[in-house]
Amino acid sequence: MDSDIERVLVSEDEIAEANKRLGTQLAKDYAGKNPLFVCILRGAAMFMMDLIKHVDIPMEYDFMDVSSYGGENTTTTGDVKIIKDLDTSLRGRDVVIVEDIIDTGFTLDRLIELFNTRHANSVKIVSFLDKPSRRIKHVHVDYNGVKIPDAFVVGYGMDYNERYRNLPYVGVLKPEIYSTK
Question: Chief subcellular site (predicted)?
Answer without folding.
Answer: cytoplasm
